[in-house]
From TrEMBL:
Full protein name: Aldo/keto reductase family protein
Domain of life: Bacteria
Keywords, in A-Z order: NADP, Oxidoreductase
Keyword match NADP: yes
Length: 334
C-alpha cells in the first residue's frame, strides 16, 4: 500500500480507503462487514470513510465495532454531516445545532474520542457559511475533530470557504470528497485546478462507477441478481451509467486491462490515482476478496499511452460538465 498526504496537510492517508456507504448495516451482514474491514487492515489500508446518514446511522455503528481493539493511532476515521438523521426541523443541514449534535452521535457510534476528518456532506444554502465554518473550527479546538473537509461542493463554494477561513482565522478545509471515475470527470475543469492551487486533496468515491467499470454489466442484459444495480439504495446513482452505449464502451476497456495484467476494477482505481490531486480512492466491498483485488491498484503507474487509449475507448460518453456537482437548494427534511 502506498500513502499520500491529504491535500497540503501533514496527514497521510492510504491511497485506497475503505468506505461503507451502502454495504455496512444494509447490504451485507455484520460478520461479513467485519471480515471486509479485517481484509482492509491486513492489506494496510489505514483510512476508513463513513457518514452519519449511511444505513440510517447503522454504518457508523458497524464500523465502530469492526475497528474495536485496533490501535486508534494506526487508522484514520472519516465521517460526514448534512443529511437527515432524524425527523426534527434541525436534524439536517450544517447549522451549529445539527453539526454539534451530529458529531456527538458519530463519536458515540464509532466508539472514539475524535475523528480524523469531519466533512460537510453537501453545501447548505440555508445556513451562513460563517456559522458552519466557526462550528467546525470549534470542534477542532475541542479536539473532537482533527481536520475538516467537504463533499460534493462546487469550486466556487470551496473557494468561498477557504476565503472566509483565512479572513476569520479558522482551520482551512484540507479535502473534498467528490464522485470521480473514468466515466464521471466533472471535477477536472474547475475543482481540481482550484484545489491544487489551495492545497485541498480529493478523496474520491465511486472510482469503479458503482461497479459498472468492472465490466460485469452487459449491454442489452438485465443486471445480475444482488448487484449494486438491483440495490434500492445504490440503484439511483448507478442508473446514469446503465445505458447500452455506456456499457458497450466499457467492454472496450477489457483488452486494455488485460494487456496490463490488471482486472477491470484495478484499472479503474489505478486510473483515478493517476490524478496528482487525488489523495485517496474510496472502495467498498461485500466480500473480503474484493478488497484484496482493489488494493492491488495502489502504486500502479499508467503510461500516457494507456491513458490515451482509455480516453479513446470511452469517447463522448464521459460526463465532464462542472455544473453536475450540485447540492440541494433547500435543506432536506422538515
Amino acid at each position: 500500500m502506498q500513502y499520500r498526504h491529504l491535500g497540503r496537510s501533514g496527514l497521510k492517508v492510504s491511497e485506497i480507503s475503505y468506505g461503507n456507504w451502502i454495504t455496512h448495516g444494509s447490504q451485507v451482514e455484520e460478520d461479513s462487514a467485519k471480515e471486509c474491514v479485517r481484509a482492509a487492515l491486513d492489506a494496510e489500508i489505514t483510512t476508513f470513510d463513513t457518514a452519519d446518514v449511511y444505513a440510517a446511522t447503522k454504518a457508523e455503528e458497524v464500523l465502530g465495532r469492526a475497528l474495536k481493539g485496533v490501535r486508534r493511532e494506526s487508522v484514520e476515521i472519516f465521517t460526514k454531516v448534512y443529511w437527515p438523521t432524524g425527523s426534527g426541523p434541525n436534524d439536517s443541514g450544517l447549522s451549529r445545532k445539527h453539526i454539534t449534535e451530529s458529531i456527538h452521535g458519530s463519536l458515540r457510534r464509532l466508539q472514539t474520542d475524535y475523528v480524523d476528518l469531519y466533512q460537510a456532506h453537501r453545501y447548505d444554502y440555508t445556513t451562513p457559511l460563517e456559522e458552519t465554518l466557526k462550528t467546525f473550527d470549534d470542534l477542532v479546538r475541542q479536539g473532537k475533530v482533527l481536520y475538516v473537509g467537504v463533499s460534493e461542493w462546487s469550486a466556487s463554494q470551496i473557494a468561498d470557504a477557504l476565503r472566509i477561513a483565512d479572513q476569520m482565522g479558522f482551520d482551512r478545509l484540507i479535502s473534498n470528497q467528490p464522485q470521480y471515475s473514468m466515466l464521471w470527470r466533472v471535477i477536472e475543469a474547475e475543482i481540481v485546478p482550484l484545489c491544487e492551487k489551495e492545497g485541498v486533496g480529493q478523496i474520491v468515491w465511486s472510482p469503479i462507477a458503482q461497479g459498472v467499470l468492472t465490466g460485469k454489466y452487459q449491454p442489452g442484459q438485465a443486471p445480475p441478481a444482488g448487484s449494486r444495480a438491483t440495490d434500492p439504495t445504490g440503484s439511483n446513482f448507478i442508473s446514469r451509467f446503465m445505458e447500452d452505449e455506456v456499457l458497450t464502451r466499457v467492454q472496450d476497456l477489457k483488452p486494455i486491462a488485460a494487456d496490463l495484467g490488471l482486472t477491470m476494477a484495478q484499472l479503474a482505481v489505478a486510473w483515478v490515482l493517476q490524478n496528482p490531486n487525488v489523495s485517496s480512492a474510496i472502495v467498498g466491498a461485500t466480500r473480503p476478496e474484493q478488497v484484496v483485488d482493489n488494493v492491488k491498484a495502489s502504486g500502479v503507474k499508467l503510461e500516457a499511452e494507456v491513458m490515451a487509449k482509455i480516453d479513446s475507448a470511452l469517447g463522448a460518453i464521459v460526463e465532464r460538465d462542472p455544473a453536475k456537482t450540485q447540492s440541494p437548494a433547500t435543506r432536506p427534511g422538515r
